[in-house]
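Archive entry: two folds, one per protein. Generate the first.
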Amino acid sequence: MSNPVALKASTGSRPKNAFTSNSRIPLDYCDGPTQRMYAASSFALLQACKIYYYFQMTQSDYAAGFFGFILWLLLDVLFISTIHYLRIPWLELPALRLIIAFLTLTIFNFVLFTMREVPFGTLAQSSTSILWTFVPSFSRREASYHADQDAHLLGRHTVLITPYSSAVMNPEDQCFCIPVANLPVIEQPEIPIIFNGSDPYAIEYTITSFETGTTTTHKATGPFKESSSVFKKARSGQDGVSVYTLQATLPGAYKLQKLLDKEGVDIRFFKGKEVFVVGCPEARIDHHKVSLDRCAGKGDVDVPIVVQGLPPWRVTYKRQSKLGTQELLIEEEPAGYSSPFLKGWSPPAKQDYSWAKQHEMNLSAHLGLGTPGDYSFQVTKIKDGCGNVIDLQGLVSRGLREPEIRHVKVRSRPLVTMKCDPRKPIKIVTLGDSPKAKIDLDIKNGEGPFHVGFVYQKNDIEQPEPMKDVVIPKGQESAFITANRPGLYTLAHIKDDHCEGEVQLPRDCTVSVATLPTVEISTTTIEDQCVGAIGVSIAATFTGEGPWKVCYDVYRNDQLDRANVCQGSDKPRLTLKMTPELSGAFKYKFKSVSDKNYKAIKINLPPVFQNIHPQPSASFTEKQSGIRACKGSTKRLGVQLVGNGPWDIRYQVIHKGQSRVFTENNIVSKTTNITLPAFENEGTYSVDLESVTDRSNGCTKALSVSDVVIEVSNGPPTVSFQCEAPVEFPEGGSVDIPIHLTGGAPWYLTYGIEGQDSYSAVKSDSRNALVTVSKAGTYELRSVKDSFCKGNVVEQAYKCVVVQSERPTMNLKIDSIRFRGGPRGDVPEDEISPSEKISREGDHFVLPPVCQDADRSLEFRLTGKEPFELRYKTVFKPAKGGKDVVTERKEVAYHSTMRLPVITDQPGTVFYHLETLSDSIYKDVKVQHEKHAVVFRHVIRTPPKALIHESTKKQQFCKNEVAGVTDKIAIKIEDGAGPYTLAIEVRILDVPEKVYMHDVVPNKHGIYEWTLPAKFADVGVYGVSVLRVSDSNGCSSSNDDKHSSVEFEILDTPTIAPLRSVRDGCVGDKIEFSLQGESPPFKVYYSLDKSKHESTLDSHSNKFSYLATKPGVLRISRVCQTIGRKQCCTQPPEELSAQIWDLPTAKIAGGSNLITNLRDGDRAEIEVTFEGEAPFSFGYVRREAHFDPKQPDHVGGHAEKILEKKKLSGIHDKKYSFFAAAEGTFELTFIRDKHCQVGREQ
């Protein structure tokens, strides 16, 4: 890019000490211009590497572009940060320009690496033009060209020598197809034609029909655009190559006849080349809406497919089933077919296109019937003989064609077998009206209903007899054949509604007649050596088919004792042992027998008789454990006896390994009680029955029954009150009296009030229990017993006195309430004298008012049982208004005096609402005085405040405006009650002095104006502070913050001087001035002609730079510095001004991109126009012409070779022209008028 250069070189030098460098690299080591040269060289090298990286990754993908964007953005940020850190003179950019430079480089990198369509040359020019605005010029001599030359050197004129052009039709030798009627969604084919060197304007071609052999001629005239119908432009390539397409509307052989460009010149092409456009291939399944239904087995089924188009065909179809999807292929062609696309083609002597006609052929997809299931066939793709592929499945998925799917169902044949074991024939029960048996069938596969055929054969001699088919309904779970005659049953066939089935083994079953079950019995007497017959053993033997069951009745002494007693057996022999416990004459009568086939067949057997003498026996009637007793007590146990009687029993009592034996004789009752001896010791006792003797026959039997366990306690339980002093309880409440128990849990006790007959009974599971009472009186314990026995009441502690206590009270007489506390330690004693007396106003107690933060408390006298708890709430009303603050509080006292803290941390009115008082007996007793709520009202006074008023805070004066002033300090006094006393400190040159002001009365606005005791004479800082203020109530406050002080400062004024003498300049020049003052930032006021402007410098800069953006007269009017809120300004001692001139402009070809095509020997006129003030000088170059494929209308480029340079001067007209006969691109390099120049002379 170029920078404008003024015609007159500036002279002069920078004012001495007008600029002090803070460069991190010492200027003695490396001067400013050298540092700037190194910085500029580094920036140029960095950008050159970036451009090189860009061209290296031009063919990369998006990921490489994004990586390049991130990489070079980081490098650019690192470079800018390094330049800012080094503080190179004249390259110290302010923060705003650093941000703008960073954003500019970010946009440049983003466009360069992510928007690849943008031409690099244009992008580089625009980015550099923007960036140059923020890079300061080094000096007038160094700036030899202007950054914005693109806006002043406009236009480009390109002269091209037009070469011969050529065209190639169908360069890839493709074969095209025209969609048939069944495929209307396929677009018409377009035949590509590539043109090199020029664009066509007229075309002539022929179409030879495949069906008739006739040839027709077609013509089209341009201009041809992308929107043209038959012949249109498709795209523009590189190096003058463009692609056009010819739309094929009919099948046939297409051949070019003539091509002309816009000037009527022939375009060369190969005239013998033909392009074949045939009918698109098509495949369909015949009768696809009709499903095929077949039975599984040998053989196969064919699915017909009809194909059309140019043979040979390659048909792809898919077959779907439960096993998955299969892609299958059919390749076929008509017999004897031949075409140029097949091997062995022999061209006929006479032109013949019959091979390209539309052919049709019937194909088949085969399916074997070996595997049953549901199958579907669908044609997915077809390819014809010249490579045209139609994706039929894709057209279906896009909804452009209805799917053609042929379904084939191969059904499973049903299979049947008999569920019959040859070793176990099926039996027919002969009892009943229609004896029959079921022969179960096992049917697999198929769909019901099923028809099962079978034959019957009585024996081996007779012929089989066909029986009526058995129909098994659909959905019936069980299948069987009913057999009503003995013989052989054999399956013949099975079929369902669709297919004949197969009969598998076992296929036959033998049926025989079941015999009736019988039973035979034999008996054996069961003898006892002492008693004799105690029972009978009966052995039963069965015939028939198990399992068996026999039933009988039992009689005792000719009376029915038990009826229909049944016993079962899986074996053909059963033994029954009859041993009744009772004696008597028993009879056993057998009634029926059952087996697997017959139920309850009556039998006639002789009864079994037996006289029974049972053995003696005895057992306890009580539970075997959990029996308890006290030491010294006895226990009775019940005993159940068996036998004839009378009986004698023998038992023993075991305790701690020692046993004692006892007997009970001549017991006549079957139920009796034995009385155990008294338990002498505590512990566990076991009572065991050893034997029983039946006196009727003298038989004795040893017993093995479970013993009885008895737990014996150490002694009787006791109960006592744990009540050493009277127990108190609140009115309407209750109290728990503690009780102590001994013995074993649980305990049952009774108690009552002395002198009353009524009592209460309670149960306790703990040794230390609580009895809850709600009446006053003397309570006494009446009785107690535990889980072992009754107990005793301890005489020394069987009474407890219960009394009702008094409610807690608070003495609210004024004379008894104390308002305690004293003055604050930091306030003199004579400044505070509040009254300590409490008064009454209506229903309120009124406390004496105090100052904020005073230490006060309320003291009350209490009666009741300590500790006490007082619940109250405070309502705070701020002195300056606002929302009331309600706070719930409580106070605890452990003696009869309670101190309640008084809240004084904020000014306002505080109400204390005393609500409830609690002691150790009563909870939440309402606090009242003379049947009214107790409320204390207390006023906290606001302390006064004295602050320096905002109007006098931080006053500043400029030295050239004020040379000393006597002023007043405005002190704002708030709150409190006047008159006031002030303590003031005055600091004069850092020497403090205190001044006390008494009887101070502010005006109605609360302002007190205090006259300063000193004058300001020199530059510096002076301060006044208000230390303390007190009012007539004795309330005071101290000040220790900045709002109680004021400072005065005398400030110096800034100066400005130019860095060099500049009287005129051009737009784009940078004019710089140096400023001096106490501290930046500075503000410069200037004007350009009649428009006024101001500029605020950065806080780290003492140099003002003006970049001339438009022509006019620049004048500096004044410069200011601001410290705090004070602005001190000065005017330059002499007028600072400069004349800014506008930049000249030159346009070639009117500023446009003009392309002129010449034939050999012609010339082109190159015209240049000027804007500015004559005389003019300009230069131009002729570069090698280059065609940019991304911009078809753009020819030329900065990177092309320079073929010619020329410079012209002394031109006084606004227009200049010259002629050119050579090829190339003409571009302007610089323009100079009377005052300024744009561009660099080459």
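Generate the second and append.
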Amino acid sequence: MPPKEHKQPAGRSRLGTEITQDTDIYTSDKYSDYSATIASSDGLDADNSDDEAEETMGRPGRFDITAPQELLDEIDAANSSEREAAAERASAASQKQRQQHARRELPASGSYAETVRKAQLDREEAELLAKLHKQSADRAEAQAGARQGSGKRKWDDQTPVHPSASAAAAAAATPRRRNRWDETPADVHVTAAVEDTPRRARSRWDETPVGVHAAAAAVDATPRRAASRWDETPAHGSAAMAMAAAMATPGAGARAAPAAMAARNQPLSDDDLDALLPAAGFAVVPAPDAYVPLRTPARRQQLQQQQQQQPALFHMADGAHAPRHALVASAEDALGGGPGALPPMGPDDVQYFGRLLDGGDDADGDAEAAAERQVLRLLLRIKNGAAPQRKAAMRQLGERARTLGAAAVFGQTLPLLMAPTLEPQQRHVLVKVLDRALLRLGDLARPHVHRILVVVEPMLADVADRFAQAEARQVISNLSKAAGLPAMLAALRPDVDHADAFVRRTTAHALAVVGAALGVPQLLPFVRALCGSRKAAMARQTGALVVQQTAVLLRSGVLPHLAGLAGGVAPLLEDAAPAVRTAAALALAALAQSAAPYGVEAFAPALPPLWAGVRAHSGRALAAFLAAAGHVAALMEAEHAAEAVRRLLPVVLREFHSPDEHMRGVVLAVARRCVARGPAALPRATLLQDVLPALFTCFWTRRAALRPRTAAHVVGATEDLALRAGAGAVVARLVPLLKDEAADLRAMAARATAGVLRAAGAGDVDGRLEELLVDGLLYAFQEQADAAHAPVLLDAFGAAVDALGTRATPYLQQVASALLWRLNNPSPLVRQHAADLAGRLAPAMHACGQDELLARVSVVLFEYLGEEYPDVLGSILAALGAVVSVIGVQQMQPPAGDLLPRLAPILKNRHEKVQEACLDVVGRIADRAPAHVPPREWMRCCFALLDLLRAPRKAIRRAAVSTFGYIARAIGPQDVLATLLSNLRVQERQNRVCTTVAIAIVAESCAPFTVLPALMNEYRVPELNVQNGVVKSLAFLFEYIGPVARDYVYAVTPLLEDALTDRDLVHRQQAAAVIRHLALAVAGLGNEEPLLHLLNFLWPNIFETSPHSICAVLEAIESCRVCLGPARIMMYALQGLFHPARKVRDVYWRIYNMMFVGAQPALVAYYPRIEDEPLHTYRRYDLEYML
């Protein structure tokens, strides 16, 4: 039915406004030559273009515009079947629209998020399918145009049929011309006969697009019903469908792209080839016999990870691709939880372990390949596996190293050790593997010495990681013992004169390790040959470096070889190469430092060139010669040392002004050694006039304070000078630095002041210097801004007050006023420092008789117990504890009765510093003045202490259980014991263990007879945790009370009998621990009978396999040996020493070995009597005479 035409009044727009036109310019038939329809620029909506045209033309309110009559006549001549197709498409579109409205009106079955997610999936699906259909349509149109010829233009195609009644008569006479917009693109293989057959038009949504592998014969000429594409399962060979399935999941684009590319790049099947190429004229060429598909490990690993991550979609597999999926399945079994479970690989592991993914079997290849695969499997478990997997793999690799072969083990381990992405922990376990393999392989490792050294030597130069250096030294040491000295020298000899200094240094270090492992005398000829080399100066330098590293490794062990090593290096001090001279001087310095204070005679040949070098050199070479001269001078006698110091001191003082930090460190160390030689070598006047001013001028600077190592050396040198020159002269130079603007320099001066006053005292500090010292320390304390400097300043203040003693009394009032004022400061850091200083000065205040001042400070501290910052509160509690420990609880202000109720709620604070300080105060009050606090408050503290048994720090738990003992002594054990016994029912093991310790402490504090009845009665509770807790409490109890346990042996024997026959392994283990402590406690006190009875119950447990259980049983048997004597244990052990079962013999021989170690002489009398044989005599005549 043609749409109705809506006329619009002339001169009026569709908005209703009047329009005036210039008729000379604009004619009334302006739009007569224009088309009424606009072709869509996108080919995706070609199927629905007719429907949209009808809807647009039939909608009221549109412009009344039409096409030229001749064009309309041509359109009306279209086939009537096209009108029917357009009507069907319109009805299908209307039906789909109604279905969409109906779906919108249905109630949502899920949440809003699910509804949004489903809508997003539908939208992405529609977009993707539209894109795929467009591509298929373009290809079909291009191929159809190529077959029909190129003389036809696309604008000559038949236009969409206009539903006009006037065009119906011309439909039969006018030949139908094709239009690319009016019908669904044909399939690639649709024949011309099919095109001529009239059929009902279909929409692009009606059926699945036909793939490239569809056979042309499947298309018949009869009209077909349009089928929906969702009614069929997508074909496996369609890469587009695989991509569509992968992209349909939200956020799966990045994951699915490689999988879709892999599906697209699959080999073409026979059907695909028949569809693409003619059957005649082509043949499938078979693959060569030796052809192997390129399957790189990276691609296999990437595909395996993607298939593990992405969900299983509706992309179905067929039998043609079974081998590929079988390969992936085998890789998943290898890397997942399959039969040969291996840990997962990282992206960097594929290049090393990629061979494990090819699905091969160890029995397929040769023996070497099988061994390499086994080693790779074990190495992967060691590198990436969990702890049990790693331990088992390391044990297997160590045991099977000789079976697998050195080539397989080292060929796979060494490249893995050189991986740049190796983590320190992984490198540690791999080096351990290498070390164990060397111990097992022995001389089989000799062909691989050079490869091992190439991997391990760089670890010797890793200064930042001392553990790596130790591991490398251990590996080279074991390699030297396995391969021997000739093999090691043959591998290291080419690198002694290498052009790279790093290689020479690591080679020298390795040679030193070889010498330490095999003995210096064996390596000494080679070292002397290196030092005497005439061809290469670099070889001589390497020889000197070997001597230096040997001295560093052996330390005092170098003394037996000192003459040979020093004699080989001494001629190098006059070598022509400066680098060789420097290395020789450093070697002599290391030898002298390791041999101190002995061996000065060995350095006699080196002294003349050494003094000449000190005068002649400069820079780094001079630093090396000064270090050697200083260390050698420390070995000399007093008169010779004085001469050496006289030669060295001018050079040292001159180099104090050197800008080189290395030189400054060397001369500072030499100056300390010169000062340490005493007044005979360096008089006090020289120190005060020359050394001390130069030291403070050159080293006490802000630049030196910013470097921690330099600052530590300067402080140490200052303390040494104070011991020789007196504390007054040094402190007088330090006091101005306490008021310097630089905080680091103030902290450095405070550290030096504390060290000087502790080492030299304050005897020569006059009154004026006292005032300046206290004022400077107080200024530095008040001006501190960095929390890291607080401990240094507190220590300096305390050291100064302790050194001054009662002389500090006039200054305490001023210091206390400053503290009280700073306790009210808004800054929490300032309040914390003030509280810390109050606790540090409390002993000094009491020593100076300032108890009233101390009481006033304690009252102020008590008022600040409501502090909100835990760090500040912990410092306040620590200061209160210091005051309580100094003046006692009786003189404490406020009294203990007022203080403890304030402390009970603070015990619930979770801050570790607060808990530890609060427990200290509560424990002191409970220990020294329990009567000042009512029992109700003590019980409140008990309940709060139960929570502290779960504290992560052991010191807090120990203080908590000790406080239980103090409280039980104060108020009696009954209430405290009831609280602790009820706590045995909790599930947390740490809490139960601490509770058992607390019960034992209560028994020790209040006598065992007050605790044992309730404890043994609690054992009757049929709960495993409670019974284990009771038995563990008995173990701790007998450990604590010692010999007092003799009165309770018979009382606990029935309980231990029941525990030793319990089915629970842990229960029997705890009972063995009780017997252990009980036997040691009553040894020699006449309680052998009950212990012998308990030994009969204990002995059947010797075959336990649990490590903790067997250790507890063997320790209990050893304790019974101490109590009962070795003879009785020997009678038990003889029954199984020669048992036919090896597992039984192993246990009995282990017990016998323990007895032999502990009481070997006592066993002689109890060995069984063996009759003599013709060739052997076993009788012990001397023993028989004695008996």
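Annotation attached to the second fold: The mean pLDDT is 79. Residues 4 and 361 are 79 Å apart (CA to CA).
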